Amino acid sequence: MNPILVFDFAGIAVFAATGALAASRKQLDIVGFLFLASVTAIGGGTFRDLILGAPVFWVVEPAYVIVCAAVAVVVYFTAHLIEYRYIALLWFDAVGLAAYCVFGAWKGLTLTGSPTIGVVMGVLTATFGGVLRDLLANEPSVLLRPEIYVTAALAGSATFTVLTLAGAPLLAAALAGFLAAFLVRGGALRFGWSFPPYRSRPGRRQEDIFK
Amino acid sequence: MNPILVFDFAGIAVFAATGALAASRKQLDIVGFLFLASVTAIGGGTFRDLILGAPVFWVVEPAYVIVCAAVAVVVYFTAHLIEYRYIALLWFDAVGLAAYCVFGAWKGLTLTGSPTIGVVMGVLTATFGGVLRDLLANEPSVLLRPEIYVTAALAGSATFTVLTLAGAPLLAAALAGFLAAFLVRGGALRFGWSFPPYRSRPGRRQEDIFK
Amino acid sequence: MNPILVFDFAGIAVFAATGALAASRKQLDIVGFLFLASVTAIGGGTFRDLILGAPVFWVVEPAYVIVCAAVAVVVYFTAHLIEYRYIALLWFDAVGLAAYCVFGAWKGLTLTGSPTIGVVMGVLTATFGGVLRDLLANEPSVLLRPEIYVTAALAGSATFTVLTLAGAPLLAAALAGFLAAFLVRGGALRFGWSFPPYRSRPGRRQEDIFK
Question: Is the CA virtual torsion B49, B50, B55, B60 positive or negative?
């Protein structure tokens, strides 16, 4: 087995947990847990594979779906033990983001040979599952939160891609990419790191509908 | 013609009607009816075919699009006769759900041979059109309603898949799957059937943003 | 280079600008600008290519992604010069809509030979990027606005398709389609053109939840 698949399964499992946590916040039933866990965990990779023209990974290997289902059931029976479930969701999401940006970048780079596509696929794989989760669960989108999010995926994908092009061993590049993404996103969660947001002029009111 | 296509056309027609009813609730114009009817009716099957790597059904046979357009026009001129249009939408949606979970499971099972993929494709085909409709029309998502929804698609897909693997004739398995899904969803609509929702502890307030 | 590609690059650039303008309205950071600009600009064409079974255009030619990134950076540094950014967004969106409905119709017609698929692909390419932008940026959907929107894409796609089938030269049909779509959408923006919205009966209240 290719050792990079560790990042794929880690991403699946923690993203499934975030989907199940979102289901717990919406007080859905067990099937709602299964559905949101699966869509969150396999959504980003599904888009990645469709866009790359590769066979969709979980159709080739249905065990991925079983992993999602198992995680959803475990969260259903244990989420009440977690005091701050939205914070748990954000941290699991950070781990999934870091794992998936590396795996997506590897798959994009391997299949097309283009570093640009590798980086874009890393970002897309890492962020789309969470975007789908928030859309379907009607949560505020993680994309629009003030602290850094997409940037972390970009940092991880770019780190992995640059190191790989520079000839680093696969697992070293993957670990470095994972750490880059997780440290950026973790710092953003812990310390509220953010880029200066866009402001057209001082003191403008966000409510101005045409501005 | 393969008789299972009856379920496909039935699903198309009633899902198109739900999209057009959603358009009527948003007071869109005739082109808005055509758009929402088409996206709702062919959205689930489009994702199914993309994920399975099959040619998209309505690109192969554009008559499906014509059916959507015809249904949208009929609803545009008759919706005012229906007193409770949201309730009509929910019942049409139930029929479409039942028809599409059978057809999706059949297509997934036939193309991949995997029962897991068959069941997942049945659920995905049956639910994604409605999810898209609610997202685009800015309606509350049918997924987040308290009564049973995804479960009905799961019941129908699983019934069809198990009976088919057990050697039942195609149409018998399809009818049994259709009835299983429709009875579960119809019972949920009529009697408010629901699984116990997830609750972390008694009396917790849904507004707690981090819990 | 096929001259119809002019419409493709024009569509990319102005849709990227609308995504970046939406990011400026949400006060996102520079990476948020890059993300929303890219999704808006390449979202519609990505769905078009997936559905047609064609290789996704920006995977084949990553320069499209670079164009999106460049436009996002330019808008990041110049948007404060624009007084009414939402109005600018709507007019750029109108140009993108007109360019993309022609290019989408050409690609759909060329790849399948079916005029129905050509028209549908024109509408889908022209409208889906904007739909994604509004969903991700949590803006009111351009689809649900009272004035004409999808109709303009339909007018442009149909004009191009009919003229092409009638034997008109490619660029003449493309320009006519572009003008048809832009005049319809521009008139709608300037003069508030709309079809009569659907109304079930005089004076009914929009809040009636089941009607």
Answer: positive
